Amino acid sequence: MKCRIVKKRLSAYQDSELNHQEQEEISGHLAGCRECRAQYAQLEQIRQTLGEWEDIRPNPWFSRQVIGKIKEPQEQAALPVFQHIFRPLRGPAFAALILIIGLTAGGYFGTLVASSGLFPFQQSPVSYAQGEPLFTTLKFFDPAPPGTFTDGYLRMANYKEVSR
After folding, report:
1. Residue 61 reports pLDDT greater than 60
2. Considering 14, 78, 90, 158, which has the largest number of Cβ atoms within 10 A of its Cβ?
3. Domain with 44 in it
4. What CA–CA distance (Å, rounded) separates 44 from 14?
5. How many domains does the chain have?
6. What is the DSSP letter of 128?
7. Is 96 among the domain residues?
């Protein structure tokens, strides 16, 4: 018998689940094969470590309780027609709600940060009441908005000393 077959059947051999002929073949193989004998010794050591397990006896009423729960009718919704209609809309409705909450929170916190002056390139709060035309407030879209590191570098690189 080959080692790979013996190794697959060692557990069954240990539990005496094989027929008499297979038990004899594996016994003969174990007598001549050191590797399979070592694996069988490991299985024996595991079995001794675990000891004999006692069967767990369930509550005598357990099976009746399970069968009763299976046969118990499911609770019906108050309006099954509406439940049938709105069930497929749960996912999209939840996604829309999350999107609305995210946009609202983003707008609120964006306005809060912009009005607090935390932007390094914001020189003064933008107000259309100051009489500035709309296109002057679009400086934030320039390649180097005022007050940024890039703007400072460009001003430094283009600095010319004025003689007095």
Report:
1. yes
2. 14
3. 3-50
4. 8
5. 2
6. G
7. no
